[in-house]
Amino acid sequence: MSVNQGGPNRERAVSVQNGWFVLVLLLGLLLGDLAVLISSMPRAAEEGPAVILACILVLPLVGLLLTGFFTLQPNEARVLVLFGVYKGTVRESGFHWGNPFYSSGPQAFRAVSAAAQVRRTGSKGEPGDAQAPALGRNKISLRARTLNGDTLKVNDKRGNPVEIAAVVVWRVADTAQAMFDVDNYETYTRTQSESAVRHLASLYAYDDGEEGEATLRGNVEDVSRALRAELQERLAKAGITVDEARLTHLAYAPEIAQAMLRRQQAEAVIAARQKIVRGAVSMVHMALTELAEKGVVALDDERRAAMVSNLMVVLCGESEVHPVVNTGTLYS
To answer: pTM higher than 0.85 for the full model?
Structure first.
């Protein structure tokens, strides 16, 4: 037995009837039907009940047609599904009328289920699930949304545990894919975002990478671009477009934070010492060169080594130096 697995759905933009025009027609039909019903009742015995029966049957028909009205706000769309068949998507904002048999979608069922769960347990369910059912009638918001991810504990490229979090700005680009290719596009976006952040953290070292290697702390822009590219690839099947993705929190895990802080302090001390030594060597060389060129004093190798040693102690020492004045000769 073969299983039919179709490709990804694609959105088709369609238009429906203007709601105000249909509303005037239905109100006119309703008033006309009531007028005929009232006028025909005195003559019911002569003309028979056919006219009255027809007028009575028109009333529920008008009531059914009145359920076809719906409104769309700017950056809002409705997916039209008729008896399980996708008919298109309405993106134009305003007051519209469509087939009253267009499905209200799974949002209505989830809204009833969520309300029942709140009444039973007092819980609010999964975060984000309350946004989709609030629209109803297969409506999807096209506005940009912000997903502020939770702080995750992951291992970086070197195996060090780090805490990382990201914020993702996304929006629905293809309503058909968002509605039919995934079960719940909001939950899908949240889950895939967390998975992408975990995978990204494992590709980069936190800091102190090799020469030319990008790190999480030192190359924030490059890491953000890589995160956005990976998220776009993951969320494309749900019709989601990622406008921006950026890290909002990055730190070592508490269990190694103190050790890493001491390492960073040691690295800072070493870097400062290296700079001090380079500067001291340059100053000593300049002093010896000036003394030799201007003939201030002639020093042999032993006295030159002693002067270099003394100058290096003075220039590189952390505490204040107290010189000893020699009142004798240079060689005593």
So the answer is: no
Structural tokens at position 217: 């702390």
Residue 186 shares a structural domain with residue 264: no
CATH of the domain at 221: 3.30.479.30
What is the spatial distance between Cα 318 and Cα 280, in angstroms, rounded to a whole number?
13
Specify if 40 maps to a domain. Answer: yes
Cβ–Cβ under 8 Å, residues 101 and 116: no
DSSP type of residue 88: E
Q: Are 17 and 97 in contact (CB under 8 A)?
A: yes
User: What's the sign of the alpha-carbon dihedral 111, 117, 122, 128?
Assistant: negative
CB atoms within 10 A of CB 212: 5
Q: How many residues does the chain have?
A: 332
pLDDT digits (tens, 9 = 90+) for 58-100: 888 999 999 999 999 999 999 999 998 999 999 999 999 999 9
